[in-house]
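thoughts on my protein:
***
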Amino acid sequence: MVESRLIGPVRVVGAGLLGTSIGLGLRARGIDVILADASPTNLSIAVDYGAGRAALPGDLPQLIVVCVPPDVTAEIVARELAAFPQAIVTDVASVKLSPLQQLRELGADVSRYIGGHPMAGRERGGPLAGRADLFVGRPWVVAAHDAISYQQATAIDDLILDLGAILVEMSPEEHDRAVALISHVPQVVSTIMARRLTDAAGSALNLAGQGLRDVTRVAASDPELWVQILGANAEPVRDILLAYRTDLDRFIDALDAPTAPGARRKVAEELAGGNTGVARLPGKHGQDRRFVTLSVMVDDTPGQLARLLNEVGEVGVNLEDLRLEHSPGAQLGLAEISVLPEAIGRLTEELAARGWRIAG
């Protein structure tokens, strides 16, 4: 068992995906985890799953992690601060300024509270989706404020490091502006695009490839949760959407008369601007390195994808990213393998020599 930085016990309030994953990760390090949830079923599943134990009279947690929906985060944090005056309390809500403001309005002791936000998740929620390694290598924001000292926040730093996450320090305002840009506005844009599909002809949808799936993937998220998130972070989201609307209007104006002088140049400049923005996204592990992509045809039969990935490893090339595209009715798919530029030539030659069909 790997030694933990935390002493424990750690109380986790909310046995959903994040709460259960935190419990599983800490239990793997031998920490005593106390679970609490408004749903007896969720609590029972998480306990049976090995994420911790139910609360007992006299429990004195060192740290409390509140993992509940954003609209009740401040209320639950205030309750935990009052119930356990010796404990440091954090949360995992995806907005940070609003809970802090609400806690101050409630008169809570924010000298023992500091907000957090792990940038990790899965397509499914609930305790059954929990994973001990969910946070490994993922950023975890700590939103510090003036009322809490560095020494008091040490337990939260230890929690993050114990779970294998990467600690990122930001103010609550900086965090909310950042997630508005990289998470909340993309959710809105994806949702609006996906709504265009509701009345689309089936013949059109059958042509859909990976591009459309990439753009609309997050549109399948929980509407109730996102109403809470967008309501709590409305101002920065609105500001970015207003700028986005200006950009969209400019693009539409260029398409009003596509053969007019300068119209094609305007469209090209907008597209090139998108290339510039994408190029700024960091690669794996936050590295600012660009990758190149190789598309390999994979027969739609059991074991073929596993064989491809195994042979990429045998060649000695590190896989940086992988995307799969499969058209309805087709008997093969495309595996888009991203690698470092210096590896692409050797990988192409080796895979071709092993019988793989290279599409691009």
Observations:
- The two ends are 45 Å apart (CA to CA).
- The longest strand covers residues 292-299.
- Residues 286-358 form a domain with the Alpha-Beta Plaits fold (CATH 3.30.70.260).
- Residues 162 and 207 are 46 Å apart (CA to CA).
